[in-house]
Amino acid sequence: MEVMKNLESSSDSIIFLNDVQWNNKPLKIVVAPHKVPDFLEILGTNEIVYELLETNLQTRLDASLDDVAKPNPLERAISYDWTQYYELDYTYRWLQQLAVNYPGVVTLIEGGKSYQGRSILGVKISKTKSEKPGIFIEAGIHAREWIAGATATYIINQLLTSTDEGVKQIAENYNWYIFPHVNPDGFVYTHTTDRLWRKTRTPYGSCFGSDPNRNWGFEWNVVGSSNIPCSDTYAGPSAFSEIETRSLSEYIKSLEGKISLYISFHSYSQYLLYPYGHTATLPSNHEDFKRVYDVSVAAISKRYGTVYTGGNIYDAIYPASGGSIDWAYENVGTKLVFCYELRPSDNQPWIGFELPASQILPTGEETLDSITAMVNEVEKLGYFKN
């Protein structure tokens, strides 16, 4: 494990697709062609067993860009569906169009700014004028996790258009705050330059970016993060060093007392997770977390048989401090917070992050099934208060 950790931090020619945290768990690693001889020598010297999954990953990544829709600046109205992925500007135009199409129901909200000056744009959905409990969803904090943002936009659309009674009920009874892309610079970079980019784009010497889900100001840089700027898990020079996390946290803080349920979308591995990431100690209301977790993972499997596992972050996947859901749990009075690691599972044929566009719709459908069940269970437990 120490050999792998050193590799992860020492070269931008080797990309780890999952974190190096536990022994006896497989790692998926992308190796640049010029690095292959050295990489194989390191594996051989240290008696590390490997399996070759793909000889030319770039061809698959290039093919995945065929699933991306680009905005036509001449189009006044845009079409938007869940058969393809979208560039940032296209999704932002769609959000703006929703505010026009649903006046008084959809309000554009800005959760903050990025290093390169982009807005962290989202929507508030409120179908009645009365004050209601709030549900907050953020997605795309890791840039390469395209299915996260696509799922967030699917849920926005369903909250506005679904005729399903269960979805209509949760749409009408709560205020929804949804941000599909909270790392916009990184997301744009995955379209223009590096499909597997994870971090922000803040320059740090000869390296770029901090891991924005290791940068929040609760138990920052305690475990599961790196002090090396070139590492994919670089925690940044300080908590909230990234304008993305700092400005978004300030927006969330402005909603203190109004958010009863906080949800974060990531990919991949099919986990449902809750605090904490820095310690195996469970939150004081862990029995309620477990009850909501059980209902939610049962619901996500009903439509397509998709199996989710999970639990507290530290034990279910790996130690990781400085994440958004732990911060929200501790800082804004939100006592139920969850992270979905969406499709695919580790045993699927895809490398992980380049989930085909044909998977967007089923992922969105089953995730909404799960969230509907989650919201209803949270209501039964009495956490929703105006």
UniProtKB/TrEMBL annotation:
Any single GO BP term: proteolysis
UniProt-recorded Gene Ontology molecular function terms: metallocarboxypeptidase activity; zinc ion binding
Residue ranges of every copy of the Peptidase M14 domain listed in the record: 84-378
Cofactor: Zn(2+)
Protein origin, superkingdom: Eukaryota
Subcellular location: Secreted
Signal peptide: none
Active-site residue numbers: 341
Keyword annotations: Carboxypeptidase, Disulfide bond, Hydrolase, Metal-binding, Metalloprotease, Protease, Secreted, Signal, Zinc
GO CC, one annotated term: extracellular space
Gene3D superfamilies with a match to the protein in the record: Metallocarboxypeptidase-like, Zn peptidases
PANTHER family (alphabetical): PROTEASE FAMILY M14 CARBOXYPEPTIDASE A,B, RH39904P-RELATED
Function, as annotated: Involved in the digestion of the blood meal.
Entry similarity comment: Belongs to the peptidase M14 family.
Name of the molecule in the record: Zinc carboxypeptidase
Species assigned in the record: Musca domestica (House fly)
